[in-house]
């Protein structure tokens, strides 16, 4: 999460390209989603924040899904990511797995604990 979030700040142009045209403020959306991804990634490692961070990831992965569909449909290359059309399409079901994984961490009995 943290690495991909940081890529939103280092490769902004590519991430801006995959935001659907009907949405305004592409650059702030890229920065905002990158910040939230870094925040959630770090939050998963902090026991008192991990449940909130997991919920944040569930929501974030659902919200950014249209950008991934837009990228696949329009075959948009992002410098920070490998560009192979079949892989871009395979990312879509992978997003569902990420949502399920993040949701799994929202459960009380699955919170990370440091001993």
Can you give a write-up of this model?
This protein has 115 residues and is mainly alpha-helical. It has one domain. It is 68% helix and 0% strand. The chain has 5 helices and no strands. It has helices at 2-10, 12-17, 26-43, 50-74, 85-104. Helix 1 (2-10) runs antiparallel to helix 3 (26-43) and helix 4 packs antiparallel against helix 5. The longest helix is centred in the middle third of the chain and has 25 residues, at 50-74. It is globular and about 40 Å long. The two termini are 23 Å apart.
Which helices and strands, and how do they pair?
Elements: H1 2-10, H2 12-17, H3 26-43, H4 50-74, H5 85-104
Could you provide a short overview of the structure?
Helix content is 68%, strand content 0%.
Structural domain count: 1
Low-pLDDT segments, ≥5 res:
none
- Class from secondary-structure proportions: mainly alpha
Strand content: under 5%
Tell me the number of strands. Answer: 0
Notable characteristics:
115 residues; mainly alpha; 68% helix; globular
